[in-house]
């Protein structure tokens, strides 16, 4: 496969488009802590709904910073209101998608911090795309590109964080 300017521009576009979701996902982790989103409740299977990893503070700050990212992007193309709306939908979708991923992990009895390949990398991206689909018509090509690029970026960021001592595990 030949790498050309069109392929590189498509990759850059996908990263730029998903930036509010990526910022929200990272921010929710970095600024998390405090009361968990599920407030300690348990599901009918007696396991926690989501767990301690998804918090109110992280969810709110992640959504706000993702929305701010969208606002900046919107300002750059002279459509701040659309940028705010799209940024908000991508950011909130990312946070909700991550919470849904945690819910699924709890149902499969996967403890917090333990790997769930693919789910760990894509839950927030799928949530972001679902929420953004309210105002964006995604092509199958764009969905596939977003999923592939997100997996690569997510794993790369985690490996780098592990190598520099920020994370205890590489995944």
Word description of this protein:
There is one protein chain. With 171 residues, this protein is mostly helical. The protein has helices at residues 5-30, 56-76, 80-107, 119-132, 140-163. Helix 1 packs across helix 3, helix 1 crosses helix 5 (140-163) and helix 2 (56-76) runs antiparallel to helix 3 (80-107). The radius of gyration is 16 Å and the shape is globular. The protein starts with a helix and ends in an 8-residue tail after the last helix.
Strand fraction? under 5%
The structural class is mainly alpha
Total helical elements: 5
Radius of gyration: 16 Å
**Strand and helix order:** HHHHH
Shape: globular
Outline the biggest β-sheet.
Answer: none
**Count of DSSP E strands?**
0
| pLDDT averaged over residues | 94
Helix content: 55-70%
Distance between the termini: 28 Å
Low-pLDDT runs of 5+ residues are: none
Write the layout of secondary structure elements.
Layout: H1 5-30, H2 56-76, H3 80-107, H4 119-132, H5 140-163
Summarize the structure.
The chain has 171 residues and is mainly alpha-helical. It is built from 5 helices and no strands. Helix 1 (5-30) runs antiparallel to helix 2 (56-76), helix 1 (5-30) packs across helix 3 and helix 3 crosses helix 4.
